[in-house]
Amino acid sequence: MPSIDLPFSIETQAIHAGQDPKQWNSRAVIPPISLSTTFQQTGPAEISGYDYSRSGNPTRNCLETCLAALEKTKYALCYASGLAAVDNVLHLLQNGDHIIAFNDLYGGVNRLLRNCAIPHGLEVDFVDATDPANIADAIKPNTKVVWVESPSNPMMKLVDIASVAALVKKNAPDAIFAVDNTFMSPYFQNPVTLGADLIMHSITKYINGHSDVVMGCLMTNRDDLHQRLRFLQNSIGAVPSPFDCFLVNRGIKTLAVRMQRHHENGLKVANFLERHPQVEKMFLGVTSRPSIPSSTRYCNETVQWLQWNDQFLHKGRREGIASSTISFKGVHARRKSRRR
């Protein structure tokens, strides 16, 4: 479903885009949970609006409309997980097609590419995308997808999205330039405004923000790409439940407030650690560091995620404040170890 072009801030869009009470007979101000698996037809083979909940669901469509508005795209499609969204992108490709991927990707995507895509006939080259020249050097005649994260998970490496978009369009005009924007969220960065063809989110993380939903999303402005992905979303069937969509519709309303507080909290901790005699390096968000001009060039300045060696975790562990988990970006303080 195309997004509604609202001339409002992201804070207002998160509450109202796709949520118009007039679309419901009840005029409910919160989109209801539509649990029905099938919908009444006006006659044999005469479908009006919805037919089967895998193909389209009112609660899911509300969420997709809202997500598209936040990411400044025409379209958004939701999936049962972030990896399900990535897998749908892989289904756009044919045997022998070539993917250029950042060599510091989220582990699940890395595993999907190495252990599933390559054995099934796709070519994948992993490159250091922090230098756009490395992507340019890796482009082949059969390159169909360029996939990056910025910042990357978990090492927070930055990609010059605009420069990569320009070189992909010049040297591989048929390729899809995809950006995983999970780390920044639409609040801090909109890759489509920098030239990306496709944006991916693990909704599980900041967008939902409450650690109670697993979901993914793809966004695009391209009509042709949306039509192909929409077909695959329905054909493969890895769609989220209406209840999960309801939860994200709820969680997304506080996205702007949560992201601003993440930024403020992270900056306070970063400034404290920068002055600590045992700290060797700091990443992102502390203005005395030379990396900051490059980071703020691509996105609004933000600190939500800090890295430190294990000895700095002991106090938090003793006091039971930071939980050890393998996922993050909820409202709790988390301690996450990188898997080697």
From TrEMBL:
Q: What are its E.C. numbers?
A: 4.4.1.1
One GO cellular component term of this record is: cytoplasm
InterPro entries named among the record's database cross-references: Cys/Met-Metab_PyrdxlP-dep_enz, Cys_met_metab_PP, PyrdxlP-dep_Trfase, PyrdxlP-dep_Trfase_major, PyrdxlP-dep_Trfase_small
Q: Name one GO molecular function term.
A: cystathionine gamma-lyase activity
TM ranges: none
Q: Which residues carry this modification: N6-(pyridoxal phosphate)lysine?
A: K205
* Pathway assigned in UniProt: Amino-acid biosynthesis; L-cysteine biosynthesis; L-cysteine from L-homocysteine and L-serine: step 2/2
Q: Does the keyword Amino-acid biosynthesis apply?
A: yes
Give UniProt keywords alphabetically. Answer: Amino-acid biosynthesis, Cysteine biosynthesis, Pyridoxal phosphate
Q: What is an annotated GO biological process for this record, any one?
A: transsulfuration
| Matching Pfam families | Cys_Met_Meta_PP
State its cofactor.
Answer: pyridoxal 5'-phosphate
Q: Name the family.
A: Belongs to the trans-sulfuration enzymes family.
The record ties this protein, via PANTHER family, to: CYSTATHIONINE GAMMA-LYASE, TRANS-SULFURATION ENZYME FAMILY MEMBER
Q: What is this protein called?
A: cystathionine gamma-lyase
